[in-house]
Amino acid sequence: MRVLVTGASGQLAQAIRLVWAEHELLLPEESVLDLSQQEAIRSVVAGARPDVVVNCGAFTQVDRCETEAELAMRINGTAVGWLADVCEAQGAMLIQISTDYVFDGTGTRPYREDDPVNPVSVYGRTKLEGERQAARCSRHLIARTSWLYDSWGKNFLNTMLNAAAQGKSLRVVDDQRGAPTTCRALARQLKMAAEQNWQGLVHTTCQGETTWHGFAWAIFEAKGIAADLSPCATADYPTPARRPAYSVLDGTRRRSLGPDLMPTWQEALAEVIDHPEFAKEA
Ligand SMILES: NC(=O)c1ccc[n+]([C@@H]2O[C@H](COP(=O)([O-])OP(=O)(O)OC[C@H]3O[C@@H](n4cnc5c(N)ncnc54)[C@H](OP(=O)(O)O)[C@@H]3O)[C@@H](O)[C@H]2O)c1
After folding, report:
1. What pLDDT shows up at residue 244?
2. Is 101 marked active-site?
3. Between 20 and 30 A from 104 (CA), which of 25, 78, 127, 175?
C-alpha cells in the first residue's frame, strides 16, 4: 500500500513511520502538507495518489485551543473534510485519529462507540467535528484513542521523567481516569486495520485504566526512580480547558473486527521502558 501520513513530526506519525515500514510511506513535512491550507491538502494528496491517508496531524495543545478556537477548528475539523473529499475522489481510505475528549467524562463504565458525545473543551469539539467530516469519505476509519505517549515526543512520560531528573516535587491529578496508550501499539493496530479494511468508528486504546497519578507512579516504579510524587485533585490545578474526569473507552467493537493488538497499559509501558530504542530496532 502507498500510505500518506499527515503531521509527520508528531509522536504518532513517527510510530507509524517505524511500524508500517513494509509499506510505501510518504510523510510530507507540516510546512508542505499544512492542514490549514485547503489547496495544499488537495495538491499534495492528489499528487501522491495514496491508497491510505492516516491523519495524525492536529492542533493537539488542548489548553491553547481554548484561545485559538478558530484555528483549532480549521485544523482539527474543517481540514478533515478537505482530506475526506480528496480521498473520496481518489478511492483512498482515510484513517482519522480521534480522542476520548469527545466525551464529557460523567460516565461510570467504559464508553462505547454509540454512547452520546458531549465534549467539554474546544479541543474536544473540534475533534468531534473532525469525526463528522471524516465520514464524507466512504472508506473511512475513525480511531478514538487516549493519553498517547511513547519514548519519543512531547508527552506525559517524558514530562514526568524530565521533572524527576531535575529533582522536582510532583503533584499529579488522581481524579481523572483513562487509558494510557503507546503510539507503537496504536500504530500496530492501525496497520492491521488498514490491511483488513476496517470501516467506521472504533475505540483503540490500551486495555485497563488508571489515573494520571497512577500512571506516574507506574512509570517511576518501572524505571526504579524514587520520585517525590503525590496525588492531587483536578480542582487544585485549574487549567484553561476542562478534561473529562472519566474517559475509558470500551474495546468490544475493536475485538469483534479482528485480532486485538492492544496490550494492557501496564504491558505497553513495560515495552516502552524496556525498549526505548524502538526506533533503532525497527
Ligand atoms: N496525544 C494524545 O494524548 C492524544 C490522545 C487522543 C487522540 N490524539 C490524537 O492523535 C493524533 C496524533 O496526536 P499526537 O499525540 O501524535 O500529537 P502531536 O505529537 O502533537 O502531533 C501532531 C502533529 O500535527 C502537527 N500539526 C499541527 N498543525 C498542523 C498543520 N496545520 N498542518 C499539519 N500538521 C500540523 C504538529 O506539528 P507542530 O508540533 O509543529 O504543531 C504535530 O507534528 C491527533 O489527531 C490527536 O488529536 C492524541
Report:
1. 97
2. no
3. 78
Q: Tell me the CA–centroid distance for residue 143 and ligand 1, in Å.
A: 14
Q: What is the largest CA-CA distance in the chain?
A: 55
All three cell numbers of 261, joined, read 493488538
The atom number, within ligand 1, closest to the CA of 101 reads 6
Q: ∠ CA(210), CA(59), CA(245), 5° rounding?
A: 25
**Distance between CA atoms of residues 185 and 238, nearest Å:** 31
The Å distance, Cα 59 to ligand 1 centre, comes to 6
Give me the catalytic one of 101, 111, 123, 149: 123
Contacts of 279 (CB under 8 A, 6+ apart): 14, 18, 152
The residue to mutate among 60, 75, 133, 189, having the most atoms of ligand 1 within 8 angstroms of its beta carbon, is 60
**Domains of the chain, each with CATH number or no CATH:** 2-154+179-209+246-263 (3.40.50.720)
Exposure string (b/e) for 205-229, b if CB count within 10 Å is 16 or more?
A: bbbebbbbbbbbbbbbeeeeeebeb
Collapsing DSSP to helix, strand or coil, 254 comes out as helix
